[in-house]
């Protein structure tokens, strides 16, 4: 199965994290599917085809992780805008912790085999990256809000 991603990571890696990644993007703010795909591309996940992303968004919505509303399009068709629900925020926090634990186990395994150097991602590096990402998300939301006249 191809994901439509153009990055160099194996497609199976993306299939394993696309739900978590899409939810993380929507934690930055409500958005339509195409904008979610653009943000994932900006984050280095490659260009996702709608046939990959939209079923994931639909599954997350049916699981109560996301909700959606229809918003009128500016000079075009309406758009389905997705939002992270309260349940989704809790799920994302839980999955984020689990992801960190999983990544640490993988780092230890790869380090023990010599497959990666001692510069493997550490908890402090992840914390620094998370803080930087949070700052970027805040600036992005503020910029979007100003550009769109305060409307998300």
From TrEMBL:
<dbReference type="InterPro" id="IPR036390">
    <property type="entry name" value="WH_DNA-bd_sf"/>
</dbReference>
<dbReference type="InterPro" id="IPR005149">
    <property type="entry name" value="Tscrpt_reg_PadR_N"/>
</dbReference>
<feature type="compositionally biased region" description="Low complexity">
    <location>
        <begin position="113"/>
        <end position="124"/>
    </location>
</feature>
<feature type="region of interest" description="Disordered">
    <location>
        <begin position="113"/>
        <end position="152"/>
    </location>
</feature>
<dbReference type="Pfam" id="PF03551">
    <property type="entry name" value="PadR"/>
</dbReference>
<feature type="domain" description="Transcription regulator PadR N-terminal">
    <location>
        <begin position="24"/>
        <end position="93"/>
    </location>
</feature>
<dbReference type="InterPro" id="IPR052509">
    <property type="entry name" value="Metal_resp_DNA-bind_regulator"/>
</dbReference>
<dbReference type="InterPro" id="IPR036388">
    <property type="entry name" value="WH-like_DNA-bd_sf"/>
</dbReference>
<protein>
    <submittedName>
        <fullName>PadR family transcriptional regulator</fullName>
    </submittedName>
</protein>
